[in-house]
Design brief:
Layout (H helix, E strand, L loop, with lengths): L7 H10 L11 H8 L3 H14 L2 E4 L2 E4 L4 H10 L1 H17 L2 E8 L2 E8 L2 H6 L10 E3 L4 H8 L3 H10 L13 H14 L2 E4 L6 E9 L5 E10 L5 H22 L2
Antiparallel strand pairs: 1-2, 3-4, 3-8, 4-5, 6-7, 7-8
Helix pairs in contact: 1-3, 2-3, 5-10, 7-9
């Protein structure tokens, strides 16, 4: 049961905002009601309020986010410690290897990118779907997500897997929960994760943990590359040691 100080209406308003994703850029009242579990009347009131506040706009019969929501992310990225200390480190990796690197966090069962670096050509022509800042992806479909899951309490992971339906984004996405649990054990033992084409066809990645000074895993550092440009052996033999070194450099800057 929620504490008496808990404001349920605020939760509802935020849940409406969270309905808007790369998969659901335009939503009508019925879809918002379906996603949130609200009645159509309640969904309409929250959408109307958010529209009046300037966070969404109505076009025809659908609603879209406005640029005003960037105020939240801008405030976070300008003050959060981890993106600030990590950006120079991953910039150096991109400069050296001409690949895309990012820092990600686990939020529930989703992984979100809070810091990334890539060369201009990569951004313009080969940016993997969902790799922009702030995007949320199912953790079982990405190297960073599985890496972060591997360091969670085993009981929590079993509970999450019991509650969640594991969606299949590509033919290669692993959704067998027993197989995933075994893979998470392996990831935790080796302290890195390789994933190929589970989130997007033609893309593979390697992730390593970022620890704080108390040996807690606080984030994942990964490299993402098109399969037609790098091999699995190259990512593991050539890039992985530099990922581990960079993660250690970030650790020394945490407080």
């Amino acid at each position: 049961m929620h504490d008496k100080e808990y404001v349920k209406s605020l939760e509802n308003g935020l849940s409406v905002l969270q309905c808007f994703t790369p998969q659901h850029k335009r939503l009508n009242i019925s879809k918002v009601a379906q996603i949130t579990g609200m009645t159509r009347a309640a969904a309409r009131r929250y959408l109307f309020t958010l529209e009046q506040l300037g966070y969404i706009e109505k076009k025809e019969r659908c609603y879209l986010l406005t640029s005003k929501v960037l105020g939240f992310t801008g405030a976070y990225f300008s003050t959060a410690h981890l993106p600030i200390i990590s950006q120079p480190v991953i910039n150096q990796l991109t400069y050296k290897f001409n690949l895309a690197f990012s820092i990600s966090l686990l939020d529930g069962f989703e992984v979100t990118t809070i810091c990334r670096s890539s060369n201009y050509n990569y951004v313009m022509h080969q940016n993997p779907y969902g790799m922009h800042l702030g995007n949320r992806l199912p953790s079982h479909t990405t190297s960073a997500g599985k890496l972060l899951l591997a360091y969670q309490d085993p009981e929590r992971i079993h509970r999450i897997f019991k509650e969640k339906i594991l969606i299949k984004l590509t033919p290669y996405t692993k959704t067998n929960k027993d197989e995933l649990l075994l893979e998470l054990d392996e990831i935790r033992l080796q302290e890195w994760c390789y994933s190929a084409q589970e989130h997007e066809l033609g893309i593979h990645a390697v992730a390593v943990p970022v620890f704080d000074l108390h040996d807690n895993v606080i984030a994942a550092l990964n490299v993402v590359s098109p399969l037609n440009e790098t091999s699995k052996a190259y990512l593991i033999q050539e890039i992985l040691p530099h990922l581990l070194s960079a993660a250690y450099d970030i650790r020394k800057l945490t407080c």
